[in-house]
Amino acid sequence: MSLTERDAQVIWHPYTQMKNPLPHIPIVRGEGVYLFDEHGKKYIDAVSSWWVNIHGHAHPYIAAKVAEQLNTLEHVIFAGFTHEPAVQLAERLLPLLPGTQTKVFYSDNGSTAVEVSLKMCLQYWVNTGQKQRRKIIAFKDAYHGDTFGAMSVSGRSIFTDPFNQLLFDVDFIELPNAGNIEQLKSRINYLSNEVACFIFEPMVLGASGMLMYEPQYLDQLIETCQKHGILTIADEVMTGFGRTAKYFSCEALTTEPDIFCLSKGLTGGTMPLGITTCNDKIFNAFLSEDKLRTLYHGHSFTANPVACAASLASLDLLLQPETLLNIQRVTLRHQEFAETLIGHPKLKNVRQTGTILVMEWETGGDTSYLNGLRDQLYLYFLDRGIVLRPLGNVLYILPPYVISDEDLAYIYQTILQALKEI
Ligand SMILES: *Cc1c(COP(=O)(O)O)cnc(C)c1O
After folding, report:
1. Predicted pLDDT at 162
2. Where a domain ends, among 270, 287, 318?
3. How far is ligand 1, taken at its centre, from the CA of residue 72, in Å?
4. Which atom of ligand 1 is nearest to the CA of 111?
5. Which of 258, 264, 396, 412 is flagged as catalytic?
6. In the structure, what pLDDT confidence band is assigned to residue 368 with cuts at 50, 70 and 90?
7. Which residue in the list 34, 106, 124, 143 is annotated as catalytic?
8. Which residues line ligand 1 (CB under 6 A)?
9. N or C: the chain end with fewer CB closer than 10 Å?
10. Position in ligand 1 atom list of the atom nearest CA 238
């Protein structure tokens, strides 16, 4: 039996209708931006394996650091104990974040990082004696993860349909622009001291179709929140670690969020790890003689030393001047290509932020995630050795920063060909 056939016997894949799914491609090896299947076919990983990989696959430096850590201390309970990789990662990461973030809380992935951020905010108001602050504000098209809290603060969609009744109420607002910003600010002013927090993906909303908006409007929303003491959570799970051509997307702001959620690129895409950071305002509200004010949250693998070691290695690479040059180069190539696409009759919209380039296809009305164009595009690029995974009619490139100009040119050229043929 082939690996694909054995897989079909025993595996239930994520986001996959398992009745007659497209065959799952057996990958045996990764190197740089390439994935190799068991027949030796090479694919360019142009979506960074679900947006996590930033330095390329099987990076020898990260691999060496991970191996070293595995042979030293693979894991230890993180309540009552600590270890060098967790402390060092916090020491190095906090100063890199915009504003004055002072504490790191470890968890396992992006969704758990979001759960922790919500619990920090909701309990902040319990601890400070304003229990009426239970509302959360989020963007209507947000995506913050797949666990129940994270799902609740995400937009309602086909993903959440079966669970909608059980998700807690959230005050959803539109993405801000010049036309609606005053109205959104009025809405926040109106809700004012019923609101615990505002959670947002800064400047790029990933899973809902790589929607983009301007930092100046986010600044205005954050300012309005701060006027009422509403806490603010920047979900940089996707945008963090160079993705938007800044180390963190919130560097484009003049205001400072209270909390950051990080994952995906954190370990360079090597293994799962989530981080929620906060400022002293949040942290101090949990300091008390009263045990009820403790943040009772944790996971078995909290601050796993191997994942922390991978993150430290990834951070070493991220901070090298060469990586910044690569990020700038990919950004520039995307810009150049985007300019040639503007006004293309088959594209409804072309947009770009840093290393993320988005091409929204015309579909003649049917823009749903489930429209047929998606599979057509997906298979077209796979056939040609490129992994691109459109979100409905939204085709995007989000590559590891080490991708070469040649590979980018090949992807662009294949997109032009697809625009002719599909
Ligand atoms: C992917 C993502 C999450 C969820 O992260 P997981 O590790 O998949 O649970 C949360 N927020 C944003 C913005 C994301 O892109």
Report:
1. 97
2. 318
3. 30
4. 9
5. 264
6. low
7. 143
8. 109-111, 114, 143-145, 201, 206-207, 235, 237-238, 263
9. N
10. 15
Residues 247 and 314 both lie in one domain? yes
Residue type, 177: N
Q: Whose CA is nearest to atom 15 of ligand 1?
A: 238
CATH number of the domain at 260, please.
3.40.640.10
Going across the sheet that includes 347-353, the strands are 347-353, 356-361, 394-397
pLDDT-derived band at 128, boundaries 50, 70, 90:
very high
- Confirm whether 143 is a catalytic residue: yes
Q: How far is the CA of 39 from the centre of ligand 1 (A)?
A: 32
Question: Would residue 412 show up in a list of annotated catalytic residues for this protein?
Answer: no
Question: What dihedral do alpha carbons 189, 190, 192, 194 form, nearest 10°?
Answer: -160
> Could you tell me if 88 and 312 are in contact, meaning their C-beta atoms sit under 8 angstroms apart?
yes
Burial class of residue 10 (count of CB atoms within 10 Å of its CB; 0-12, 13-18, 19+): exposed
What per-residue confidence (pLDDT) applies to 369?
59
Q: Which of 291, 318, 345 is the last residue of a domain?
A: 318
What pLDDT shows up at residue 363?
Answer: 86
Count each helix (H run) and each strand (E run) in the chain, helices first: 13, 16
Q: For the residues 299-307, what does the mean pLDDT come to?
A: 98
CB half-sphere exposure, 389, CA atoms < 13 A: 17
266 lies in which domain range? 64-318
Q: Check which CATH number belongs to the domain holding 348 and give it.
A: 3.90.1150.10
